[in-house]
Amino acid sequence: MAFLEVKNLHVEVEDKKILNGLTLSVEKGQVAAIMGPNGSGKSTLAYVLAGKDNYKVTEGDVLLDGESILEMAPDERAAKGVFLAFQYPVEVPGVATMTFLRTALNAQRKTRGEAEFSTPEFMKLVRETSKHLGIDQEMLRRAVNVGFSGGEKKRNEILQMAVLRPRLAVLDETDSGLDIDALKIVAEGVNRLRSPERSMIVITHYQRLLNFIVPDVVHVMAKGKVVKSGGKELALQLEAKGYAQFADEAA
Amino acid sequence: MNADVRAMKTPAEQALSAAFAAARGALPGKGAVGTLREDAFRRFDASGLPHRRIEEWKYTDLRALMREAKPLAEPAKTKGVVPGLVGVEASRVAIVNGRYEPNWSDFNTGDPGITLTELFAFAAEQTSYRLGDVPGKDDTAFWLNTAFMTGGVVVRVKKGVCVEKPVQLAHIFASAAAAAMYPRCVVIVEAGARLTLIESFDGPDGIDYQVNSAIELVIGEGALVDHIKIGRDGDAALRVSTLGVTVEGKANYRDFAFTTGGAVVRNQTFVRFGREGTEATISGATLIKNRQHVDNTLVIEHAAGGCTSRERFRSVLDDESHGIFQGKIVVEPHAQKTDAKMASHALLLSDEAESDNKPELEIFADDVQCGHGATAGALDNTLKFYLMSRGIPEDQAEALLIQAFVGEAIEDVAHEGVREALLQASVKWLDARA
Questions:
Q1: Which band of pLDDT confidence, cut at 50, 70 and 90, is reported for residue B112?
Q2: Which residues of B touch A75 (CB under 8 A)?
């Protein structure tokens, strides 16, 4: 069985059906790209995996390492190793980035029955990780994402991912709003985290990101399900011909 | 209907009249003070307790909330401990059951730059300061304080003196039976002087004692004053505190009201900027639960131009608690270049909690920058989800967000030790909630 198994998933948001029997497997250590037009349900899949509360699963299941996660609260899923890099990272006024990271990391460790990090250990971890991402100490002292540029917010997401070391990372349009330099920094950050122990789902509209984060497999979504899967060359094909060719297959 | 024909006196009003008739001869302070009392009581007696049809008291109907008037508190019989602030060293002045208690206090009188005098000794000694002549002097609760004032102190910081150690005026109710206390203090910070003034209110839970306190604060030219008021009254207490502030030019005045205690609390602050170039921040944080009722009311008069004032209050309201913010900024015709901005934010943690916000701007000058904003709402679910998606359990995520909300208000406190103590106090409040 694959590390992540999404089986025949049907999801409604405010009585509107978004996912229509989506089935998807992601192997351990695999980087899977999910592409698709606007409204195909890519972000919905990301939120459902993370456990957002107004997404109603009407049918199907999601298994992580063989265990259903649908009944778990978002924090329990995080402790199991699920991480969502938000398309629009949220500003959290009054909570310093450092405090936020530490609270999150230690809460996860506590849930897993692991020892909490000591302050020096934690500082060392964050310092080393943030250096690669061009995040300075000043940014870490500031409130989470408050007054950050679009690029800084995305780098902060990757920093959180690097500190929390998830087993399944879902990157929801991490490339949106980034210029080419910022994109490179973010992609390098992601690539450093590629590991045989970590699966990733990279959601994007554009093939551009996949030049930097080269996927093992590409899935195309349309109308709430996966309509085509293939190797990384599938992304190039999409870039050349557009999504229209798949719209009919979903019908 | 005729305003002169008052409805029948409430039991509380009758009790206050009886108490004043019985005590008038025995209350401390003779001569001018006696006249002041008589005059204040006459004015109170004509109007009665403020009620909801009095606009300034719309949300705190004292006539309904104050069912009875408690007898005047007796002096404390045994010496007790003055509750301080964790980690903050201060010169403590104990005002127990409404009277200055030197032997409870640890105020070092050795410093020639700052003097401490008992209220009535001060009133008897000097005639240049006119007691009670402060902004807010036309308020009913203030009249009641003047009529009954049982004691207090006068703190004076001499010109140019920088007092490093904060002075804490610790109001303590120390009695096993409910009673009322009416402390009055005067704090004069002369030109160029600096003072951090902490005012605290403490009392036991379960006793419906009453406090009507008043402070007259005079801030000289170029002086720097930080006033932090900490309300930790017992859970059945009713407290009305009046703060009347006169500010000269080029001064720096910061006021912060932190309230967690009391059943019914009204902090009313009246500030008048009399000269140009002053900067002031008047702010506060309230954390309440159960059926607590806390009202922060401000009247800020910009009587001189070129002053900057910031008014910002935050409240966290749980259960069936009721938080009120009323802020009125008055800009007089000649007070050009006034810069005043007011904001109040309430975080409602339950469906039964209530927040009332009433900002008012009365602007008579034409070249000013004034504004106000108010919000009231529940915790942001998007924020909560973001925190939870990182592995932070729901209760901890909520606590972190509430803490952040309050923390942003507490940032306004300049004194690091006090700021830290208030942050700790809010964490403690949140822990008690969980």
A1: confident
A2: 388-394, 397
- Which residue in A53, A143, A164 is closest to B390 by CB distance? A164
Q: How far is A69 from chain B (nearest CA, A)?
A: 13
Out of B386, B393, B396, whose CB is closest to A92? Answer: B386
* Global ipTM: 0.96
Shortest CA gap A87–chain B (Å): 12
Chain A 105-124, CB below 8 Å of chain B: which residues?
105, 107-108, 111
**Please, which pLDDT band fits residue B1 given cuts at 50, 70 and 90?**
very low
Please tell me the distance from the alpha carbon of residue B129 to that of residue A111, in angstroms, as a whole number. 64
Whether residue A244 lies within 8 A of chain B, CB to CB, comes out as no
Number of domains in chain B: 2
Q: Is B370 on the interface with A (CB under 8 A)?
A: no
Residues B145-184: tens digit of each pLDDT:
999 999 999 999 999 999 999 999 999 999 999 999 999 9
For residue B2, the model assigns a pLDDT of 46
- Token reading at B424: 């700790």
CA–CA–CA angle A193, A199, A205 (5° rounding)? 90
Confirm or reject contact between A84 and chain B (CB < 8 A).
yes
Which residue type, as a one-letter code, is found at position A238?
L
Contact B390 A78 (CB under 8 A): yes
Length of chain A: 251
Nearest residue of A to residue B404 by CA position?
A: A94
Query: Do B365 and B356 meet the contact criterion of CB atoms below 8 Å apart?
Result: no
Our CA-based measurement puts residue B359 at a distance from the nearest CA of chain A, in whole angstroms, of 24
B408 touches chain A (CB under 8 A): yes
The SS3 assignment for A75 reads helix
Q: Which of B382, B393, B408 sits opposite A93 (nearest CB)?
A: B408
Selection from B285, B230, B241 nearest residue B264 by Cα: B241
DSSP state at residue B85: B
SS3 B351: coil
Domain A4-250: which CATH number of 2.130.10.10, 3.40.50.300, 3.30.1380.10, 3.30.1360.120 = 3.40.50.300
Which residues in chain B have Cβ-Cβ distances shorter than 8 Å to A104? Answer: 387, 390-392
Domain end call among B247, B275, B303: B275
Q: Residues B271, B384: one domain?
A: no
Residue B339 in any domain: the answer is no
Find, among A207, A156, A152, the residue nearest to A182 by Cα.
A152
Domain boundary among B248, B275, B302: B275
Report the pLDDT value the prediction gives residue B127, as an integer from 0 to 100.
78
Residue of B nearest to A52 (CA): B385
Does B192 lie in the same domain as B69?
yes
Spatial strand order of the sheet with A199-204 comes to: A82-85, A168-172, A199-204, A31-35, A217-222, A225-230
Cα dihedral sign for A83, A89, A90, A91? Answer: positive
B395 touching A (Cβ < 8 Å)? no
Residue B113, Cβ neighbours under 10 Å: how many? 14
Digit-coded pLDDT (tens) for A68-116: 999 999 999 999 999 999 999 999 999 999 999 999 999 999 999 999 9
- Mean pLDDT of the region B105-128: 89
Are residues B51 and B175 located together in one domain of the fold?
Answer: yes
Q: Is position B175 within any domain?
A: yes
**Residue B431 lies in domain:** 379-434
